[in-house]
Write a structure and sequence with these properties.
single chain; alpha/beta; 2-enoyl-CoA Hydratase, Chain A, domain 1; 6-stranded mixed sheet; 4-stranded parallel sheet; about 40% helix; globular
Length: about 325
């Protein structure tokens, strides 16, 4: 649904969104082109209305501007149409993402993780995720596991510094159940130890992590069970309160959970060729490893929503500009 900003300013927002025929699963596009008033003041005035929308909201501005209340702000009609098409392709996941981010933005991190997990659990039961599972090729486009006796995570202490290394280079450090549990244990240890002033996290091989192992998606029987597992074994739970002590060293591919975990770090650096990506919406899901909390806290709700909705590949240079990382290192 497309709305002219003038209509929004002259009383449109006085009505409940559902009474105006706005359906869940579509996007509301508010066009500010030609609007003579103060867009920032108008957005603040209708913020509560925008946050009640049962669907994503997009502001189309003549110049790039972040307006309060909106889920996304763009400056070209082409970009607005692209985002609308993405929402139409996975309307439930897109809507639940925006609804979750609106709440997560205003609650403490640990509560935000609960909101994210409940939203993720809901989508695990949804048709969009099931459709993605059915369409997934029999041989995932992800490196095959290689039998190894090496532990999935290595820890090394030097003085008052602890180094944690994701140790599955043959799989580009895909995070399966074994690695998830090992990371949870390593982060828990670091949280309890007073002598660890600085914790460095690295990935063995050519990439930090390509995120959750695709073969593990869909293995949990139901969303409720998945939520219980995340509330007890999610590595992000150990980072949300102690992340300021961490320095994440990114390189190569940093995808999905690889981005989400790293974004909790007090300092995040990346090599010049690092790229970051959050592809979950295309799978009928949302980030479920803490990214709705960590990425939003680093770059703001609107930039996080754009990155999550589009699944776009972000370069290290762009990530630095946005604040998703803190430095580019050789």
């Amino acid at each position: 649904m497309k709305i002219d900003a003038t209509g929004l300013a002259t009383g449109f927002a006085a009505y409940d969104p559902l009474s105006l025929g706005i359906e869940p699963g579509e996007a509301v596009l508010v066009d500010f082109n030609g609007f003579d008033g103060d867009a920032i003041s108008l957005a603040a005035m209708v913020e509560d209305w925008l946050l009640r929308l049962p669907c994503p909201s997009i502001a189309l501005m003549p110049v790039p501007t972040r307006l309060r209340g909106f889920d996304l702000c763009v400056s070209t009609l082409e970009e607005a149409e692209r985002l609308t098409a993405i929402v139409e392709a996975n309307p439930v996941a897109s809507t639940i993402l925006m609804q979750a981010l609106r709440i997560i933005e205003i609650v403490p991190p640990q509560r935000g993780l609960v909101i994210e997990s409940l939203a993720f659990a809901t989508l695990q039961q949804g048709d969009e995720f099931k459709r993605w599972l059915r369409a997934r090729p029999a041989t995932p486009c992800q490196p095959h596991p290689v039998a190894t006796d090496a532990p999935p995570v290595l820890t090394e202490r030097r003085g008052r510094e602890l180094t944690i290394t994701l140790n599955r280079p043959e799989n580009r450090n895909a995070i399966d159940t074994e690695m998830r549990d090992a990371l949870f244990d390593a982060f828990s240890l670091a949280a309890m130890e007073q002598e660890s002033e600085r914790v460095h996290v690295r990935g063995a091989g050519d990439s930090f992590s390509i995120g959750g192992a695709l073969g593990d998606f869909g293995k949990v029987d139901n969303g409720a069970s998945g939520h219980v597992i995340r509330t007890t074994r999610l590595p992000a739970r150990m980072l949300a309160d102690h992340g300021q002590r961490y320095h994440f060293h990114l390189k190569g591919a940093c995808v999905g959970a690889g981005v989400e975990i790293a974004a909790f770090g007090g300092f995040v650096s990346a090599t010049p060729t690092t790229f970051l990506r959050l592809p979950e919406i295309s799978m009928g899901l949302i980030p479920g490893a803490g990214g709705c909390v960590s990425v939003t806290r680093r770059i703001g709700r609107q930039a996080a929503a754009w990155m999550m909705l589009t699944g776009a590949r972000i370069s290290a240079r762009t990530a630095l500009k946005w604040g998703l990382i803190d430095a580019i290192e050789a």
